[in-house]
Amino acid sequence: MKCTDAVILEQKMLVPEIYQMILQTEAPMCAMPGQFVQVQVPGYYLRRPISICEIDDRQVTLIYKTVGQGTGTMSQMNKGDILNLFGPLGTGFPILPKDPVLIGGGVGIPPLFETAKQYRSLKKNVTVILGFNTKEQIFLAERFAQLGCRVIMATMDGSYGIAGTVMDAMHAESVSKEFVLACGPLPMLKAVSAECQGYISLESRMACGIGACMGCTVRDSEGGSLRVCKDGPVFAIGKAVL
Ligand SMILES: Cc1cc2nc3c(=O)[nH]c(=O)nc-3n(C[C@H](O)[C@H](O)[C@H](O)COP(=O)(O)OP(=O)(O)OC[C@H]3O[C@@H](n4cnc5c(N)ncnc54)[C@H](O)[C@@H]3O)c2cc1C
Ligand code: FES
């Protein structure tokens, strides 16, 4: 884990409010899928946690949604600008000798891309269930297909794929619930946790990102507390109280 300046190689809008930024770091960065970086957006004291979508030697891809001032400023940055990254941080999704089912919703989808890449490089069969509100919001789906994943799509308004949630799609396609890796909004993670075995990645408001400030804690199912930045963000299903 360390701070590194990174040059923006590419910045583009994938769909409204969702941007893809490709950066080149000073030195190679080695990360587990599911880990994140704390991005120092110029002009803001607190860093913004963003998951690593793809990593290859010195090249890091982040996909982020513009929700507030920090991500809004990020989206105004251009090719050649410098961003300081702190990371990789947190725990990643485990890479086990199994065929995983990856379930993602909205901006929970990016960390699943590197996860899929690593499982495909081990020749595992990867099923991906992606949930969006509408067809217009779909991103990354084609790239999962290009990796050789089985891709199942769900949209809440029924404009593409199966109408309903990722769980509706899971039921409709009789997908195995034995080894699931999921990232997305809390209601989705609760639904996944109620039926599946595996791991989920949680979000929490963060400050330090390294386990020191206790600002990101959630309750442990055994009565203690867990820091999302350091003990997570990836937890075995059932470990954290949702
Ligand atoms: C481990 C982790 C991975 C994440 N990965 C991604 C990703 O890959 N793509 C993506 O679009 N978003 C991701 N997020 C959410 C992202 O961090 C927030 O959307 C972002 O920090 C909002 O910053 P802002 O300045 O635009 O919003 P503001 O609301 O103006 O932010 C104010 C403060 O609250 C914090 N904050 C606001 N929302 C969140 C949030 N949801 N989680 C944590 N801190 C928040 C900000 O960091 C900032 O310090 C992730 C969050 C976590 C915890
Ligand atoms: S953000 Fe400080 S302990 Fe997690």
How many runs of DSSP E, i.e. beta strands?
A: 16
Instruction: Specify the oligomeric state.
Output: single chain
Low confidence ranges: none
Question: Would you tell me the overall average pLDDT?
Answer: 97
Return Rg in Å.
17 Å
Task: Give the secondary structure arrangement, pairings included.
Elements (H helix, E strand, L loop, with lengths): L1 E14 L2 E8 L10 E5 L7 E4 L2 E3 L2 E7 L3 H7 L6 E8 L11 E5 L4 H12 L5 E6 L8 H6 L3 E6 L6 E2 L2 H7 L7 E4 L2 H10 L2 E4 L15 E3 L5 E3 L6 E3 L6
Parallel strand pairs: 8-9, 8-12, 9-10, 10-11, 12-13
Antiparallel strand pairs: 1-2, 1-7, 2-6, 3-4, 3-7, 5-6, 13-16, 14-15
Gist?
The strands form three sheets. A seven-stranded antiparallel sheet has the order 4-3-7-1-2-6-5. A seven-stranded mixed sheet has the order 11-10-9-8-12-13-16, sandwiched between helices. Strands 14-15 form a two-stranded antiparallel sheet. It has helices at residues 69-75, 110-121, 141-146, 166-172, 186-195, and strands spanning 2-15, 18-25, 36-40, 48-51, 54-56, 59-65, 82-89, 101-105, 127-132, 150-155, 162-163, 180-183, 198-201, 217-219, 225-227, 234-236. It folds into two domains: 2-89, Elongation Factor Tu (Ef-tu), domain 3 (Beta Barrel); 101-201, Nucleotide-binding domain of ferredoxin-NADP reductase (FNR) module (Rossmann fold).
Give an overview of the whole structure.
- The two termini are 28 Å apart.
- This protein folds into two domains: 2-89, Elongation Factor Tu (Ef-tu), domain 3; 101-201, 3-Layer(aba) Sandwich (Rossmann fold), CATH 3.40.50.80.
- The mean pLDDT is 97.
- The strands form three sheets. A seven-stranded antiparallel sheet has the order 4-3-7-1-2-6-5. The chain has a seven-stranded mixed sheet with strand order 11-10-9-8-12-13-16, sandwiched between helices. It has a two-stranded antiparallel sheet with strand order 14-15.
- The chain is α/β, with parallel strands linked by helices.
- Helix content is 17%, strand content 35%.
- It binds flavin-adenine dinucleotide and FE2/S2 (inorganic) cluster.
- FE2/S2 (inorganic) cluster binds next to loops.
